[in-house]
Design brief:
Maf protein; 198 residues; 7-stranded mixed beta sheet; globular; single chain
């Protein structure tokens, strides 16, 4: 068991997205993690890479010199497997800003039987071990015919998870979404690691 100084009991989630932080905080609070989760909004350098892991690692290294505590970065992608062959995937953030949910729906207009998934990866810099560790999450589903729901963010209004086939992510509470989502899965793996190594 690692002995930690009191000031090292904080861990930072580096993100400017308050929705992502709220989802993470909900899980941290529920799981009674022995760390104080704090949001740190620092501009990260992002690359266009073939995998989410490459993007997340690059982001982590771009801010590592600016943070003295343990911290993590999360990167996620929305993949429309059928009929868009995985697009937008690693380009999800850019596509959301440029064409949005409406654009995705227009791209697959009148197509029946869509398949899609969300993937998330957390890259953690864990100071006590001076190590970088990755945690992944995945959920399959399909694309809604229209935007539904007032909650969530990003592509949530058009993603219907297989495990709750009558609701989009945007129609779920944070708690219910966290129980099944790609991000919730990755955060729970992160928390398990933190509990074991506290």
């Amino acid at each position: 068991m690692l002995i930690m100084k009191k000031e090292e009991n904080s861990i930072y989630f580096v993100t400017g997205n308050k929705n992502k932080f709220s989802e993470a905080l909900e899980v941290f609070t529920k799981e009674r993690v022995p760390y104080d989760l704090k949001q740190k909004d620092i501009d990260t350098m992002e690359i266009q890479a073939e995998t989410l892991k490459d993007v997340a690692l690059f982001k982590l290294n771009s801010v590592k010199p600016k943070i003295t505590n343990s911290f993590f970065i999360e990167d996620a992608g929305f993949f429309v497997d059928i009929p868009l062959n995985g697009f937008p995937g690693v380009y999800s953030s850019y596509v959301l800003k440029t064409i949005g949910n409406d654009g995705i729906l227009k791209l697959i207009d009148e197509y029946e039987g869509s398949k899609a998934h969300f993937s998330a990866i957390i890259s953690l810099y864990f100071k006590p071990l001076d190590s970088i560790i990755f945690f992944e999450g995945y959920i399959s589903g399909r694309v809604s015919r229209d935007m539904r729901g007032e909650g969530g963010f990003g592509f949530d209004p058009i993603f219907i998870p297989d495990s709750i086939p009558d609701k989009t992510f945007a129609e779920l509470s944070i708690h219910r979404k966290n129980r099944i989502s790609h991000r919730g899965q990755a955060i729970k793996k992160l928390i398990l690691f933190l509990k074991k190594n506290h």
